[in-house]
């Protein structure tokens, strides 16, 4: 199992402003639909449909995550469109949708998630080690750190989306 180490922040400024000012350089943009198949306090199974907005190509993934906090175990692999659609149809859940902008800032890769169903934008950075994550000094435009705030986790936002769609 691979270890995913990441820190997340609420983006304080529109990401396009960061592009226009030359602070970040966009590498790619994707449209992501994500649905959780199974959830526990420290484990999750999810599927995603990912569209590359430059090429129009689709990718489908299945991911298992285990743990909480900055470092979690992660297993992710590709699945077919048919399997993705069967899982989505069997669950009947509303997917969480967002655009993900992958960019570089100061030789660091950042991922900016612009959500459709909630009114916030998240910027995250992945690290090779806990030491690297602990020593990271974010710029002021990153905003408040939310790495440990479950309110902003994709899993929590997705749960709220399911509750509101059933009302």
TrEMBL record:
Question: Which stretches are transmembrane?
Answer: none
Per the Swiss-Prot or TrEMBL record, the active site comprises: 36 (proton acceptor)
Q: Which SMART domains match?
A: CYTH
Fetch the PROSITE patterns from UniProt. CYTH
- What are the CYTH domain coordinates in residue numbering? 2-164
What's this protein's name? CYTH domain-containing protein
Q: Which organism is it from?
A: Paenibacillus montaniterrae
The record lists the lineage as: Bacteria, Bacillati, Bacillota, Bacilli, Bacillales
């Amino acid at each position: 199992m691979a270890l995913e180490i990441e820190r997340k922040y609420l983006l304080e400024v529109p990401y396009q402003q960061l592009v226009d000012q030359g602070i970040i350089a966009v590498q790619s943009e994707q449209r992501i639909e994500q649905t959780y198949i199974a959830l526990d306090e420290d484990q999750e199974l999810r599927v995603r449909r990912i569209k590359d907005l430059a090429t129009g190509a689709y990718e489908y993934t299945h991911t298992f995550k285990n743990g909480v906090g900055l470092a979690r175990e992660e297993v992710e692999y590709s699945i077919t469109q048919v399997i993705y659609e069967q899982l989505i149809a069997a669950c009947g859940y509303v997917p969480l949708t967002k655009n993900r902008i992958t960019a570089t800032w100061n030789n660091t890769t950042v991922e900016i998630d612009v959500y459709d169903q909630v009114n916030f934008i998240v910027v995250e950075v992945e690290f090779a080690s806990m030491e690297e994550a602990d020593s990271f000094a974010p710029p002021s435009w990153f905003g408040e750190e939310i790495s440990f705030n479950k309110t902003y986790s994709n899993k929590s936002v997705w749960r709220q989306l399911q509750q509101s769609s059933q009302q």
